[in-house]
Batch of 4 targets.
Target 1
Amino acid sequence: MSTTWDVVIVGAGPGGLACAKLLAEHGVRVLVLERKQQIGPKVCAGGITCDGLLRHVPESLIERSFCDQYVVTNVQRLRVSEKNPIIATVDRGRLGRWMAAAAAEAGAGIRTGVRALAIDGTRVRVRTASGREQTISCRHLVGADGADSLVRRSLGLPAGRVGIGINYQVPGQAEKMEWHLRTRVFGYGYGWIFPHRETISIGAYGARGNLPAATLRRRCIGWARSLGYDLDGQQARAALISFDFRGFCFGRTWLVGDAAGLASGLTGEGIYPAMVSGEAVARRILDPAYPATEITSMTKKQRRHQQIIDLSARNPILCSLLMEYLALLLRLRLINFHTLEMT
């Protein structure tokens, strides 16, 4: 493994791979480092808005797509419908493998089983799967290493605003994509049922400060049981989601996706923000004058989501009223899922 590159990207998620592919297509010598042996698997419900998704991945990767969204609150049940699919589900593993193959075909180097141990500017000390340690140097370093990003920590940036998602991927079929904004169960978080091709993603999400992780998991199991889904004996997987954005460009060090804190604090959605920010950072590296307005747009929407979280966190009654109000706005078509999602 060469020890000198134009760009080193830590993390082979959607943000890192999108960045790598675009850079490699323009002749940049880029290396992606992934600590896991396999690219792709991650705790993820796999839901993403169609208008954002279809610009970035082929339709063959879409598991299911839905023109109807079902929303349940403490007192309302509604169906939101559009002519074209609103949200689709993807398999996170298949998506990762497809993106890795595309980046490699463009010329990016990808190394799995390589853990970043320490960062000094644009120098990264790593350990390979065989236990060998070496230092890799680069002109630009991109952190795409998730909510607990080592690259972000090397910059001295805190990550105080985080959420937790708990997901069960169970065998079976379901026909409805459901969002349960039931504050009596999930506080100012929500539960979901996202049908995939041969499985169903059932889970819950909430920002830190909403409910302890153990409580969120216990309530998720009870809620699912009330809907006819027995999660006893099923494997629960949890992941942190960062929405503490504090910038993406720090000299020759860059942050994308969850490492930059670009997920939605309200919904927890992070795949599309990761892809968009990865490509935006690649374009800025290629052209320092590139404005990266897509990141600015995402952060504006993220701030609106944060305002909803802040209002919901003040007290349970206000939280319930706000969730009912959001559902009413959806019912009246004064807002839509593209407003709520990071599109």
Note: The first helix runs from residue 14 to 25.
Target 2
Amino acid sequence: MTSPAPEPKKTTTSRRRFLAGAGATSAAIGGGYLLTRDERWPATSDDPKAAPAKTSPTSAAAQTPLADVPEGRTLVVIDLAGGNDGLATLEPYESGRLRSLRENVMHDPEELVMLDDEMALNPSLAGLNEIGLAVIEGVGTTDGDMSHFEMANRWAYGMASSDDGFSSGFFGRLCDQLDVGAPLTGLAIGGRGGYAKALLAEKAVTAGLSDIDAGWYFRDEGEWFQQYRASVLAMAASTGGSPLLANARIGAARAVEFADMLGGISADGDEKAEAEEKERRDAYPSTGLGEQLAAAAGLLRAGTGIRVLHLTHGGFDTHDDQPGTHNYLMMELSEALVAFRNDLADAGLDGSTLIATTSEFGRRPRSSGSGTDHGNASVALLSGPVVPGRHGESPSLSKLDADDNLAPTVGMGDYYATLASWFGVDATTVLEGTNTALDGVFNA
């Protein structure tokens, strides 16, 4: 259980290191991506020649946010890109069967962090486990695929199979449910140029950002930059043209609105405030994920209205040298999340921020040389207001699927339904088919 967080302190933010407009501004203008209202989702237009908006399989329900969505809750998603090995994250303690399959890539039992008399955590997760970690076992799809591209696509769109046919991302559909008109409802930081298909939405404004310090030109007070800002505002205020141009105008207007919001709470010129911001950021490890989470915490502290943040922690395609590589990646994850949770607790936000991981697939039970090949079921990690320990059902090592991989016990849809339930969102509005949220995962 997480101890009660202290009262939030007054937020002060430095524009030099913090996003201060970079998020939405560069997303709309060129430093990143505006992920909503593209050519597949034309905005409503007064132009009688404009094409009608296309809809997703769940769009009728997605157009109206639910009245009982808890206020102020945020979801931070960390994609463990490359295929995280669930058997090296949550290891069956003293499993003779597993040792016979992968003796050369297993931990020494004495190094493991025991959860109970059956399962133990990767030793690099000790710090995160101390402050509260929930593990969802057996997460995957029954119709798995060994392709990074295919499975990353399915997880992005929330498709149990390649035939589901969604055109909006799962977290984008969640943003549609949570949208109350904030400049941004969802933001991706890092990843492939900041582009996150998972945040493609129908009506909520979502964006992607590769460089957390991009967009500085909107903050510069030089004459040229101010003229550039004025030209963007003029473009946003123009009328006519195609629905696609109308979408661009909406994106530009929201971008400047977001920049102004952050500019209003910035601390440039305030030496004390800037020193406090530097101290806050220096508490994070100097890693890519550490920088992403420091920026994410700054956004949440600023009260920007963002409800879903999507981050990327890559390198999990461990075909070779898995023990050293995977342990290091787990250490980076643990250290960055401990700093993030401490930062949130200092601002009184720890109890309202859920952290969840995704990954395109797990790894094979049988090792291949010094690593493991693409598999199926893995584990998902949750931190924040969660009930620590194991959830779901452990996949059987004696009943592998047709490809000799772990068969999933918790479907992708069930896991995503669990995340949707954190917001009080009905899974039928964001997913197809029958999906059941896991009970007893959250402590609030």
Note: Confidence is low (pLDDT under 50) at residues 1-32, 36-67.
Target 3
Amino acid sequence: MTHALRTTRRSFLKSTAVALTAPAWLPNLTVAAPSEVVRHASFGASGMAGADLSSIASHPKVKLVCVAEVDLARAEDLKKRFPETRVYQDWRVMLDKEQKNLDSVNVSTPDHMHAAMAMSAMQLGLHVYGQKPLTHDVYESRQLAQYATAKKLVTQMGIQIHSHSAYRSAVDLVHSGAIGKVQSVHSWSSKKWGDEGTRPDRTDKVPESLNWDLWLGIASERPFIGGDYYHPGNWRKRLDFGTGTFGDMGCHIFDPVYAAVGLTAPLTIRSTGPKPNAFNWANNAVVHFTFPQTPYTIGPIVPVTWYDGDARPPQEVVTQYLGKNPLPDQGSLIIGEKGALLIPHVAAPVLLPEKTFEGYQRKPFEDQNHWHQFVEAVRGNGTTSTPFSYSGPLTESVLLGGVATHFPDQKLEWDAELLKFKNSADATRLIRRTYRKGWEINGLS
């Protein structure tokens, strides 16, 4: 590390420390007043980041000022599309140099860096569009949600189907009582972001375009393994960097369930699927939640079950409502007193049995632009639909499911207020990780 980078990093950490430790009664002078044009930066230049920044920059009142990308080869296409946009390899340097030129950012990187980047940006008064899952760990989600609310920052999580007419219709159907009070929920995804193998015992050459230390970020040091083992895609399978299938798709698929049923924090979580190994998430998870009763449910608890990979809801449940028709590859089945609601990912919700609801009049919904909604909120026009105050608790529930997979067949009792399990100190230790020395972030580590 050069002397210049050490100095920049020191000044960056100092500025974020001041932002976090300022007395609560002081006005938040760091928050950028929205201008006619929103000046935006992206954490990441390709993949999901490329999609997010492109969607945000498609708003006519957005200027893409700069981008941070640890693999400069993945920024080549961006340079062609946005030739005036400045590219940094170190996101801390970008924030240090560009903070006065920015109003907002999107965080669209591997999961383990979401919290560090989002919190650092918010501590500089920047509004944040953060990819799902909001964070890698439960504690981080709680901290981001609380900070964003306290500082009155505009935030939005990248569960863009929340703004789609299909998911909005699903929520309305439950709220309007179409299926009566909710009795139980089944949600699933056919994706397999797990790996039964162990970590290869080798060290490969790091590509010249990639800064491996920056890619690791808050995670502990380890050798680079090529062949797409980590970068650019398979990090989702690795415990330290991704959150498995549940973390990847759970925030999407749980979203309409969470909103429609009015769920809060779970009471208990129990995994009956396979356990992760020392390095990787497992496939074929089955995680059973109980949530407290809501205005839309019946009984003292609400059972909600997640399945992924090859796992699916019990066949008798499927047959009862779908007959011989197969389930979609991904989606949810909300079972109520009067029938059930099938919510495919992504398609129009289906009331079941279909004969029972033939001719049922639905309220019409139009698709909304999730990214432009964020931009307009930053400009002072309206609000976002998935602020961290909503998406933080949603992410917490999803991540708690991941924690439970480490303890098969144990019913873990969750204390949401204290962020701990009442009956497992071992599980509680997985709620919060230790950041690598030198990568500490105020409010997170």
Note: The chain is about 30% helix and 15% strand.
Target 4
Amino acid sequence: MEAPKKISFRQKTSTECPVCSFEFFKEELFSGGGRLIAAKLTDELRRSYQVSNKFGKVYPMAYQVTVCPGCFYSAYPKDFPALDPQEIEKIRELTPSRKGAISKFFGNIDFNEDRELKSGAASYMLALDCYSLRNKKVAPTFKNALSSIRAAWLFSDLAEEIPDKPYKKISTFFYKKAYDFYMKVLDLIQTGEEPTDAAGNMGPDTDKNWGYDGILYLSAVLTVKIGIQDPDIIKRIENFEKSKKYLSRLFGAGKTSKARPTELLDMTRDLYDKINEMLTKWNEEITPKEESPQ
């Protein structure tokens, strides 16, 4: 029987966890060889991939977060070793909590083993927990926004593969987290409270860094999908107006920009029109109608 084709490898140099000193060999995804066959881009800027005949279904997003198999401390590669003593203490104290949460949702996961969909989704849950304890110099809000949307995607994939588990509800939970974090990111960009240069690849997927444009666009997408559920119509209108303003910056109030990809501009225009329609409807609902003359 032919051995399964490998999609990943281990780094030759070990990585030492700054929290518990556990040493492990980080897993990396092989590039090329037909492992990733890019397909369409979704309206959330997520790249879909065709299933490879040789390698099956590959989830490149599952390999992005470095997780210590010993204490489950997790971070994006650049941030993994960059901990100060106060952060180490806080993250070490909450090791039982992290492990308990993963056990509750997934049972036993061994991060020494090769990544797959479950451990990939778990890695983003862990990243969110750990970045909530990090200082501003690593731009934790940016990282939490990115981790939330990726967690939402991978839990959605899990829900399709294992429909009898509550992964759809968990995906919805992380979509809401992503919405909250992306709204905060927009404010942070204006105030400069967190260094944007520390945000690194703003994704949201792994194939392309859409940068600030991607943040503006994705925050508007999440406003339409999640913000629409806000029962307070006034607050809802305010958030949609904000998203409309940000979207107008992307395409210059309808004028084509050669510096921006046509693909993003087309999706932005469609989203702008959709938001406009909703705002028109809601403003009509809250505007008192004039009484008919007797």
Note: The radius of gyration is 21 Å.
